[in-house]
Amino acid sequence: MDTLLLGLQLVFNVAPLLVILAASVFGVFVGAVPGLTATMAVALLVPITFYRDPGPAIAAIVTTSAMAIFSGDIPATYLNIPGTPSSAAYVGDSHLLARSGRARETLGVNLVCSVFGGIFGTIILVFVSPSLAEVALQFSSFEYFWLALLGLSCSIFIAIGSRVKAFLSLMIGLLLSTVGLDMMSGAPRFTFGIPDLMAGINFTLKKAGVGIPKFWAGIGVWIFIWCYLTYRVYPPIPFSVRAIYGTVSACGIFMWVSGSQDDWEDFKRPIMNVLDGISGFHKLVRVAVLSVLPILLAGYAWQSYQPSFDEPIELRTVHPAPPATTKVHGKTFVLQTASNPFRINPEGKYDQAYSNAHIVVQDMGRLMKDVNSKDDNPWAPEAEGYIKHVREGGEIFFQNCHFCHGDNLNGRGLWAYAFNPIPANFTDAGTIAQLQETFVFWRVAQGGIGLPPEGFPWASVMPPWKEHLTTDEIWKVVMFEYWHTGYYPRTWD
Q1: Which candidate, 468, 485, 492, 478, places its Cα nearest to that of 101?
Q2: Cβ atoms 401, 438 nearer than 8 A
Q3: Taking the domains of the chain in order of start, what are their residue ranges?
Q4: If you classify domain 313-485 with CATH, what class do you get?
């Protein structure tokens, strides 16, 4: 007990707590960058912590490792790329949940499980570490082989999709990893007397005689990453996230091109050739850059500060013309004749007048007509029929849609201002209040991408929810949106 109290006293001081805070930020950064591991983060901290007091030093190392392992779930969830090897086990499931609009929920679950798992593992390790050490000392090459085989086999079973492809990927990776120097003994493996293979498989275009200057290679890599994040990742990620990964990518590229003096000279050679004007072509490029760059900067500045008299985009007063039909889950809906199957009266028949009578009243902040009535309160356990379907639609909305459209459906969600245009404000009288329910069903099911220019205010990064929700779930969400905002769906009459 005295040892435990002494440990708590060492931790809960100003200096260790500040160290833990700084190490947490560093660990989150390292873990969120694919390719950087918690082990690398700890290795980078060793020179800093070597001459420090044991308490803050150990706290920094433990905090960095724990935060890096968790933050590896961030790119795994959003990009389907594990930030650390620890995230590879559930990267597929996390990304699928993110594509369903549940990225925040997924990261929250990962965080809670990481915290409790870390605490539980630490407690167990405190009591059984001596016994585990005795068992580990008995391990020979046979035990290590079977342990490695078990781990590699698990990677096949947790893979999403074809097990054959997962097995082939594993075997190709093992094949490539066996070339080079053995990490334990230092003995060369499958090098065939070629010195270049001592460091493993590292074929480059330069070795093939087709060298690409590092300057253009770095620019090409950055452009590829930016285009991949902008156009390939689905659903589209906010600009703020793209900016973060773009900045991190730029830093990584500069670290790559400055790894040695030769690499740095190779990178800056095209720049220096243009600045020095060593040839007619380089002089022409220099003149073009010095002429065009100020014009571009001036144009950008002028465009940024130019007063705009356009209508606010969030009003969404311009609605795209709907098609005659839309196809969702193999069924074709005629928008002019279709109706919400859940807008029903107690007899189970479609009755818009009945459901309109139970629309929420937005008066002085009240959200329900009578909180004590099961006929008007969808959250009542005994709610039935129409009002029960409203509750089910609300549950789906708050699981998938409120991150952008907001808790109050006003387009002010947590991620709203990362998009241009921002999500639609359903409480505005110019949006769903002016539309038929089938129109909203079409927009939710098909998403906001691919509309013609005249439909721009409604063009957005909203994913086609037919890929994530059933037809019934979409109808329920639409019905909840009308109920919550207090608007009645327009009719074709």
Answers
A1: 468
A2: no
A3: 2-199, 214-305, 313-485
A4: mainly alpha
